[in-house]
Design a protein that fits this description.
Helix content is 37%, strand content 21%. By secondary structure, it is of the alpha/beta class. The chain has a single domain, classed as Alpha-Beta Barrel (TIM Barrel). The strands form three sheets. It has an eight-stranded parallel beta barrel with strand order 1-2-3-4-5-6-9-12, surrounded by six helices. Helix 2 links the parallel strand 2 and strand 3. 47% of the residues are buried.
Length: 260
């Protein structure tokens, strides 16, 4: 199991660097490969008045500093086709946000960079719909390295549910499968113009996904999530990450023993 983790949004250099340092130490202790994740722009906010982040130029500067200082591979979002080339100069993995997972031009621009493309399954998509996203990437780069991430599906209004069979179906497409345990506990647009959530549900959903069998785990982590500018209700507290990853490691080991 590898881990994708970091604050939802880049709020400033020091917070990002401190979080990266703590995550690196915990993952070294537990022997978990780490990809550091944070977003320079949250372009799909519920309200236009919500903070979006530091922007691409400053965000890439900060992520580059994380990479140079700690030697961590970087994953970050792209929202526009023109962003892919400059982001690929810093990031090792370009992430396609769930709302944009059918955007042909964006998928293909990301794939043309030659970097790994992590496609988050849209809340509105069935797992087998991801074959179309994979095909779009492979049309322009037949050897494109692609990851697929489950982050829950819309269920009525203001709720997200996770169908664990999605992890099984997506594994059939020959790409590493990742479970996003923090976005899967969101309650979209339920808190006066912002997205709510329930971080207490992260551990049981994480354990369930690991028991089914996944290649990677996605956790958004913040030193003070209740005051984060984005996803305040569902990010994991940095102080809790070691205990949570100890659980994850144990379940991942058990799942591999069962499959073997």
């Amino acid at each position: 199991m590898f881990l994708i983790a970091g604050p939802c949004a880049i709020e400033g250099a020091q917070m990002v660097l401190d979080t990266a340092a703590e995550l690196q130490q915990v993952c070294r202790d537990l022997d978990i490969p780490l990809y550091f994740k944070s977003s320079f722009d949250k372009a799909n906010r519920t309200s236009s008045s919500s903070q979006r982040g530091v922007g691409m130029c400053e965000g890439l500067r900060i992520l580059s500093e994380v990479k140079q200082r700690y030697g961590l591979p970087i994953l970050t979002d792209v929202h526009e086709s023109y962003q892919c080339a400059p982001v690929a100069e810093v990031a090792d993995v370009l992430q396609i946000p769930a709302f944009l997972s059918r955007q042909t031009d964006l998928l293909q621009a990301a794939s043309r960079t030659g970097k790994t493309v992590n496609i988050k399954k849209g809340q509105f998509m069935a797992p087998w719909d991801m074959r179309g996203a994979i095909s779009k990437c492979r049309e322009v780069n037949p050897d494109a390295p692609i990851w697929l991430t489950e982050r829950g599906s819309s269920f009525g209004y203001g709720n997200i549910v996770v169908d664990m069979t999605s992890l099984v179906y997506m594994r059939e497409y020959g790409c590493p499968v990742i479970f996003d345990a923090t976005h899967s506990v969101q309650r979209p647009s339920t808190q006066q113009g912002v997205t709510g959530g329930n971080r207490e549900l992260v551990p049981p959903l994480m354990r369930a996904a690991l028991a089914v069998g996944i290649d990677g785990l996605f956790l958004e982590v913040h030193p003070d999530p209740d005051h984060a500018i984005s996803d305040a209700a569902n990010q994991v507290k940095l102080q809790d990450i070691r205990q949570l990853l100890e659980q994850a490691k144990a379940f991942d080991n058990l799942a591999h023993k069962t499959r073997n």
